[in-house]
Specification:
Layout lengths: L29 H10 L4 H4 L3 H14 L7 H15 L3 E5 L5 H12 L4 E6 L2 H14 L5 E5 L2 H11 L7 E4 L5 H11 L8 E4 L2 H5 L1 H7 L3 H8 L14 H4 L3 H4 L14 E11 L5 E12 L3
Parallel strand pairs: 1-2, 1-4, 2-3, 4-5
Antiparallel strand pairs: 5-7, 6-7
Helix pairs in contact: 3-5, 3-6, 4-5, 7-8
């Protein structure tokens, strides 16, 4: 796969602009409205059983009706190519929203010979939308939607034996939780040499703590690990809109300060520049776990 930059955007396919600061841009009824839009679509007969046709209908809503915070075609292609290259048996996404990524990536995992795509979504309404669209697309045999906070869901799946390793992980949920959830997966030995992570929105809105962590040397991570300090839950570098993104529905977000992960894992990390579905520049950080340092 070419991990070079995607440096041009076709404005004819742009979504409606994301609402300005202070105005809701999700969780205001548009997700259920989308479901009605898809199921009442004139082409519903052709949509049934086709992930590509379901995606076209979602894109049509985003372009003609209201903004949707989906990964979109451009960034989606970056991860889709990664799936074709890596051929993951098990892929996990943190943050499913309305199921756009689950449709694109779940279909790609199935085509690559994989058997399970876990979509972790904390909002039960959004999860219901994902399940409905996944069923409509004919992907229920591969895509499993798990409702609950990302950390609790990871621990529960691991404890039940349903999740013993992760080949590929897509991070697209609460931005300050990227680092803490990665460390949790390290600690549970779900992320090991061979695992690949693809983190969305590392330019818009950005994720300085996560980028610092995956780009750090083993020595630097060990220094922090051995300092006996708690795992810093960092919200510095995130705007108020992103720190408080889920506060209306979920209340104040509490992230674990005790999980320290595995500082001995060696990462090679690279930014792939791309675009939001609105045409705004963004990027995906692709991080490969290439080994584990031994003392």
């Amino acid at each position: 796969m070419d991990e070079g930059d995607r440096n041009s955007f076709d404005n004819s396919k742009a979504y409606q602009a994301q609402e300005e600061e202070g105005t809701a841009f999700f969780d205001d009824g548009r997700e259920i409205e989308l479901l009605h839009f898809v199921y009442s679509h004139p082409s519903i007969a052709e949509i049934r059983g086709s992930p590509q046709e379901v995606l076209k209908a979602i894109d049509e809503y985003g372009r003609k009706k209201r903004y949707l915070m989906n990964v979109g075609e451009d960034k989606g292609k970056v991860v889709e190519d990664l799936i074709a290259e890596q051929k993951p048996r098990v892929m996990v996404e943190l943050g499913g929203y309305v199921g756009y990524s689950a449709l694109v990536f779940g279909d790609a995992v199935r085509k690559a010979g994989g058997h399970r795509y876990f979509s972790l979504e904390r909002n039960p309404e959004f999860a219901a939308v994902i399940m409905s669209l996944v069923d409509l697309a004919g992907l229920s045999d591969v895509v499993k939607v798990v409702v609950g906070s990302s950390a609790d869901s990871i621990k529960r799946l691991h404890a039940k034996g349903d999740l013993q390793y992760i080949d590929l992980m897509f991070l697209d949920h609460y931005k300050p939780a990227y680092t803490t959830d990665l460390k949790l997966c390290e600690q549970l030995k779900l992320v090991t040499p061979g695992t690949v992570m693809a983190a969305d929105n590392v330019i818009k809105p950005g994720n300085p703590p996560y980028l610092e962590y995956v780009r750090s040397s083993v020595e630097k991570k060990r220094e922090h690990f051995e300092s006996k300090t708690e795992n810093g839950v960092q919200t510095a570098g995130f705007g108020e809109r992103w720190k408080n993104q889920y506060q209306k529905r979920e209340g104040y977000e509490k992230l674990s300060t005790a999980i320290k992960g595995n500082p001995n894992l060696i990462y090679e990390s690279k930014l792939v520049n791309s675009f939001e579905p609105t045409g705004v520049p963004d990027g995906i950080e692709i991080t490969r776990c290439v080994g584990e340092s031994r003392r």
